Automatic annotation (TrEMBL):
Pfam families for the chain: Pro_CA
Enzyme Commission designation: 4.2.1.1
Organism: Coemansia spiralis
Co-factor(s): Zn(2+)
Enzyme class: lyase
Catalytic activity: hydrogencarbonate + H(+) = CO2 + H2O
Protein name stated in the entry: Carbonic anhydrase
Length: 244
């Protein structure tokens, strides 16, 4: 059986700057760290367990993938997608980055979305943030964390756009509400992408959802902002039906 939280016996060491950055991004709780040598052994144990259950498990897995879900979430180590959704390898196509951002000019996330929607033909895109997000917390502060300052700057803009609402909240709630607004913005960004509208034009079922992982309970909260049709998107983003 896999034991992802085995006690640490061989901690990796970080320099002071990296440690500072890690702490700012929510990595100050190291209770669940795992020894690097244990990771390889855990993998061997898992392979043996899966083969014992089904000798053809890996032969079948190697044949290909046809996931129905695309998950775009935060890189935070506590967002263990397979574990918290109790899904199996092959079930979810995944993209993660700090603070689950979806810049409309970022080739990385755009490539993942295009491949998932156009070729894998996923039926659901889930934009998932989480409470106590270190990326969002950092964006709300005046700390400088190197290149991340650029990556997180749009979250500062999102704060400014919603400053009145956010400033009425206590700090923890402010971080989580800004995290929700960041997810909602991500849903809106995905719903405007041409590849998504092409799928809808083909009559395919494709829903974009916004969820928040509640770290204190482990539960996923549906923000109820799902988009399933071009009718829910401003007309300027809809594709023309005529040929050019
Ligand atoms: Zn996060």
């Amino acid at each position: 059986m896999l034991h992802p939280t085995r006690p640490l016996s061989n901690k990796l060491r970080f320099g002071s700057v990296l440690t500072y950055t890690r702490n700012m991004l929510g990595g100050d709780n190291q209770d669940s760290s795992v020894a690097i040598c244990q990771v390889i052994q855990n993998n061997k144990d898992w392979v043996a367990e899966m083969q014992a259950k089904n000798p053809k498990y890996f032969t079948n897995l190697a044949k290909g993938q046809s996931p129905k879900l695309l998950w775009i979430g935060c890189s935070d180590s506590r967002m263990a997608v397979d574990v918290l959704t109790q899904t199996n390898p092959g079930d979810i196509f995944i993209h993660r980055n700090i603070a689950n951002r979806i810049p409309s000019e970022d080739l990385n996330v755009l490539s993942v979305i295009e491949y998932a929607v156009k070729h894998l033909k996923v039926e659901h895109v889930i934009v998932a943030g989480h409470t106590s997000c270190g990326g969002v917390k950092t964006a709300l502060s005046n700390a400088s964390v190197g290149i991340l300052d650029h990556w997180l700057r749009p979250i500062k803009d999102l704060y400014i756009a919603n400053e009145e609402e956010l400033n009425e909240l206590p700090e923890n709630e402010r971080i989580d509400r800004l995290g929700e607004l960041n997810v909602i913005q991500g849903v809106r960004t995905v719903s405007k992408l041409p590849v998504v509208h092409e799928a809808w034009k083909e009559g395919r079922e494709l829903r974009i959802h916004g969820w928040m992982l509640q770290l204190h309970s482990g539960l996923l909260k549906d923000l109820d902002v799902s988009v399933a049709s071009p009718k829910q998107v401003e007309s300027i983003f809809k594709l023309s039906t005529g040929a050019h």
